[in-house]
Amino acid sequence: MHNIITGVDLAKEEIQVCVCKRNKVQSNQAMTPTEFASWLASSKPMTIVFEACSTSNYWKQKALEFGHDARLISAKLVASVRQNQKTDKNDALAVAQAAQLTDVSFINGKSKEQQELQTLVRLRELAVKHKVAVQQQIKSLLLEFNIRVSPSQGGLSGVVEAVLEDAENGFSVVFRQALNTSWQHLQQGIESIKQYDLYLEKAANEHETCKSLQALEGVGPLNAVNLYMALGCGEMGQFETGRDASACIGLTPIQHSSGGKVKLGSVGKYVKNNMLRSCLVSGAMSAVNQAMRRPAKTKKEMWIQQMVERRGKRCTAVALANKTVRTAFAMLANGTEYKAELLAA
């Protein structure tokens, strides 16, 4: 670190900049984004620490361009360090103070390419949420008329078509038009998800790291991009081991250790990035189902089959997801490729 440490609290319209030198505050002032960009360009190289937020990656990239030592720090850590009430000045000061703590873990930022991949994933997640919301609303509203959706009736598609085509069910023209509009909206949502899947597949296949991650069991384009975002650029922090990465994602038992006694609880479901955990476990479950349909060809498939016999498919899926994260971490850390080990003939 440089002698001068600057803590920056980012906001949309105003940026608070606290400059500290030898544990003393030199200045703590607010700037507009334009003024801050000019300040970065004119200032001598220093350590600039940003509180991790939606615009922190952009400003870290700009600070690096101007020769500064730019870093990101957890907002949760800053909140625990902040003294007195929450103001922009106190936040900026807390960022600078938190950066000087012993053995503090900084967060890796994202490059522009990594931000683009993140955008594809987030847009797909939003489309999935909208699809599920519309789907559930249509089902609930039809249930108000005691119209139940069941597979025997062709699912939601068959029920909606039957309601629209039945001229003797007593529904008004306006109601039919509104239901049809909602149904078309749902169809558009489904098509948009398919389109995002194509974008993700293309992006993952064009990216060498994501392409190599797809060799892992239960890892497709979506999970490959998710793993690269979580491990390759350290969205959740810098990990020293694969176990640390797996624990952060929520695939290892929660520890309740004290007084030299190690106590392991259940595998935690409530984690920061629950969507990542869900996707990894879903992909692992698909690999487990596939491995159970045929004789084992690899040592990993043999392990899956033995694990299913002992603990069942759900526990096996979580365990496989755990192995996947650790293997992906090793691949990214060492620059190696994954090749499944075949069983001896």
Quick structural gist:
By secondary structure, the chain is an alpha/beta fold.
Descriptive notes:
- This protein has three domains: 4-99, 2-Layer Sandwich (Nucleotidyltransferase, domain 5); 112-206, no CATH class; 209-334, no CATH class.
- It is built from 13 helices and seven strands.
- The chain is an alpha/beta fold.
- Strands 3-2-1-4-5 form a five-stranded mixed β-sheet. A two-stranded antiparallel ribbon has the order 6-7.
- Helices cover 57% and strands 11% of the residues.
- The longest helix has 34 residues, at 173-206.
- The mean pLDDT is 89.
Give a quick set of tags describing it:
alpha/beta; two-stranded antiparallel sheet; 13 helices; Nucleotidyltransferase, domain 5; five-stranded mixed sheet; 3 domains; 345 residues; globular
